[in-house]
Each structure stands twice: as C-alpha cells, then as structure tokens.
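Tip: read the tokens left to right.
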C-alpha cells in the first residue's frame, strides 16, 4: 500500500508527512534532545563500528551513554532488544529512545544516522551537538534518485548543527557545536562547508587543516596482529586489522576531542576493544581461516579483499557473494561480480536479502558481471550459483585447504534473511561453526541444515 501511495503523492507532501510525525513525537516526548548531548554519525560505511566504539569509550570513561545503531540499542548498561532491521527507525523511535535515555540519567546519546532516515526527516527536532562524516561512496542511488541527492541527504545532519543554537553542558563544560570530517574523503569539503562553532578533522594522508584540530597519526603500521600508530606523542595499539578500522578509531578519538576529553584516556580502552561481531570477524579453522564481514558496497568489498590479500597473503580466496533485493542499487550487482572475479580464486553466488524480488534475477545479474570480467581478461575461475546460503557456506568450507581464506560478505551479524514470502532466521557465524564441526567429523561430505522460518 505504501509503495502504491508513494507513486502518486508528490515528494514534498511525503516529506511534510514525515516532518509532522517527527514534530508530534518530539512534542509528546517533551523535546528530550535539548537535555542531553547528542552525537550523530553518518557515512556510507563504518557507522556501526564508530558508534559502538564511541559508546564503549564513553561508558568506560564514566559517562553514562545511550547508543542507537544498526546492531545494538543501549541505554547505559542496559541493552534493549532490537526488533527492527532499520538502522534509524521512524515513528518516533528516536524521540522515545532519547526520552528513555534522560529518564535513566544518561549524559550523552550516540546515534547512527542514515541517508534514508535523514531524507524522511527522522532527525527533525533532534538537537544535535556533534555531527560526524566518515566517508561517501555510491549507495542507495536508486532510492535517492542520484548520487548528488544521496550526498545532500547526508548533509541534512550537518545543516541541523548549523541551525542549532541550544548549548549544553557536560559536567560543567559547554559543548561546542562541532562538525567532524574524514579529510581524506573526496567529499570532505562539502561537509566542512556547513557552519559550526568548531571543526575537527581526521586523516591518514591529507594535511591541509589547522594542526590543533587535525588527528593525523605521525606514523602507523597495520599487520595481522593489529594496528599501531602514534598520535599527539602517544602510542596507540588496536587488535583490529585493516586501514578502515584505523579511520574508525580516529573518528571516535575526534569525538572525544570535541567533548574536551584527553585522548590518552582512550589508550588502554582501544587496546581492549575487539570490534563488532560480523565486521572482519575471523574464525580460525584447521589450516585456514573464515572471515565474516558486513561489506555490501563495491568499494567496501574491494577494500576488504585487498586488505585480506595484503595482510594475510592467503594461497586462495574462496568468496561468497550476493546482493540485496528491492529498491537497493541494482547497478552494483554486476560490479560485485566483477570485483569477486578480479580478486577471488573460487566464487559462489548466493542469496543475501532478496526482499520482494526474484532471487534468481539478483544472482544472475551478479553472475553476468563476474563472467564479463573473466571473459574480458581471459581468466578461468570456478564460479557457482547456490541460492541456499547455508549450502553455499558449507560448499566453500568443504573446499578450503591449508593456507586458504573463506570470505563471507553481506550479512555480518544480521539475524535474518528476508524473502518475499518468508523471513528465515540466520546466524552466519553459527553456520560457519556448525560447518567446521561437521567437516571435523566427516571431511568428505556436507549436508544442508534445515532453516527455521520466523514468518
């Protein structure tokens, strides 16, 4: 019904509809964001890790903090069951969340902010204090209409900082309205163009910024054992692996700086932070590894493959790939196939979240991209299509040999696979562990495990 109505209603009327809902819930919740420091984090990738890491740091530094993200909802130490797959739910969720945070005496709220949520005015009447831009790559283009529209939707968060005049105090210290940007990103200038009382940048390469407000490591080293870097004459270590995680850490440190906190306080905490489940999640097997990651855009998938090849130097990459259905960037499907064909030694195409589309059409579009690349460069690589994701994972683990790495992308820690007519309960890591246990008993055979239907 919603899709049918949207076809005929002018876009401005839909925007007014969402705006009025935001006002209504802010009103009945008594505008809770005016009484708590609010941090909004946006970008194409890395939002969940930065949001959770920021929450983790602040909680452990003694600030009672609330978190709303794709993976978790916390109010202080209390975890609230996440019932929706949406990162930034509508219908007053955020206003009610902020109200609960205040009732539980939280001082800071960390919100993961999406382009769709911003486009639908779910951020309206939330008084943001710090806005963080991580990066921007083509994503949700069909939903927004163009890359430029996608970028401008992200910009709404920074416009909210520009418009906000309400100053808050954190334990006696006034918090300045702050914009934080990844200076290495091509679009950083756009997000810096919005007005704010304070601007902070982080980077590994770029240097054109006030040095007092630029977090750029003097040197850094990324190995399979983790990340080491020097910042402000202090040495940091993280067990996370990959340059993208270094950017995430710098973003969280920039938030601490915006709050007037010493970065040295974070050194022991970053050393202990093991990351989020489903983000470069490594399962050690006998002689090989399985890596589970949420990567689902061409850019993030390519970076993941390059990182694995550069740091771990596997004999072979055995790759599981897929793409979501619905109005979700059909253009990227052949591109994902092409990237897998370029970097992987064995490819299995499977289902991710078909939603209301025929999953066979999605798999076929990915296959075309892979075959076009292989034909163009006259490569021969094994390529299979196995719609059942469990069966596909079992097949790759069955094929894995000493020195190989099996890479599973697209699902990460998500708890379901959504089809047009059913929702299948899902646990990617659980399936991997079950497969490894199965092959420990019988290395030459694998079997399908029945799936549990939720609806």
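Filled-in amino acids:
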């Amino acid at each position: 019904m919603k899709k049918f109505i949207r076809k005929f209603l002018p876009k401005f009327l839909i925007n007014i509809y969402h705006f009025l809902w935001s006002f209504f819930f802010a009103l009945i919740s008594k505008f809770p964001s005016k009484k708590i420091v609010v941090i909004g984090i946006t970008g194409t990738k890395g939002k969940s890790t930065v949001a959770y890491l920021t929450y983790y740091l602040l909680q452990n530094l003694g600030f009672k903090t609330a978190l709303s993200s794709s993976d978790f909802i916390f109010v202080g130490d209390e975890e609230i069951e996440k019932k929706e797959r949406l990162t930034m739910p509508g219908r007053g969720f955020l206003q009610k969340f902020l109200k609960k945070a205040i009732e539980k005496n939280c001082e800071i709220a960390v919100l993961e902010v999406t382009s769709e949520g911003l486009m639908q005015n779910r951020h309206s009447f939330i008084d943001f204090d710090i806005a963080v831009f991580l990066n921007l790559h083509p994503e949700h283009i069909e939903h927004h209409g163009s890359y430029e529209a996608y970028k401008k939707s992200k910009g709404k968060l920074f416009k909210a900082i520009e418009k906000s005049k309400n100053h808050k105090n954190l334990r006696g210290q006034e918090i300045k309205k702050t914009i934080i940007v990844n200076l290495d990103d091509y679009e950083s200038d756009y997000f810096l163009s919005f007005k704010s009382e304070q601007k902070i940048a982080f980077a590994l390469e770029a240097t054109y910024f006030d040095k007092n407000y630029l977090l750029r490591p003097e040197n850094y080293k990324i190995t399979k054992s983790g990340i080491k870097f020097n910042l402000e004459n202090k040495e940091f270590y993280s067990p996370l692996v990959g340059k993208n995680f270094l950017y995430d850490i710098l973003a969280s440190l920039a938030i601490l700086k915006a709050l007037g906190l010493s970065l040295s306080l974070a050194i022991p905490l970053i050393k202990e932070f093991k990351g989020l489940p489903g983000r470069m999640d490594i399962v050690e097997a006998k002689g090989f590894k399985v890596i589970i990651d949420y990567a689902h855009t061409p850019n993030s998938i390519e970076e993941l493959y390059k990182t694995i090849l550069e740091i771990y130097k596997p004999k072979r990459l055995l790759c599981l790939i897929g793409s979501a259905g619905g109005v979700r960037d059909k253009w990227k499907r052949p591109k994902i196939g092409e990237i897998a064909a370029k970097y992987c030694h064995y490819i299995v195409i499977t289902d991710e979240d078909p939603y209301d589309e025929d999953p066979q059409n999605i798999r076929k579009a990915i296959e075309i991209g892979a075959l076009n690349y292989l034909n163009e460069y006259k490569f021969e690589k094994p390529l299979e299509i196995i719609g059942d994701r469990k069966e596909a994972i079992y097949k790759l683990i069955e094929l894995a040999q000493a020195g190989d790495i099996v890479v599973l992308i697209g699902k990460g820690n998500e708890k379901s696979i959504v089809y047009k007519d059913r929702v299948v309960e899902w646990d990617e890591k659980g399936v991997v562990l079950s497969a490894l246990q199965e092959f420990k008993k019988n290395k030459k055979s694998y079997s399908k495990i029945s799936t549990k239907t939720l609806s």
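DSSP finds 15 helices and 22 strands in the chain. The first helix runs from residue 2 to 8.
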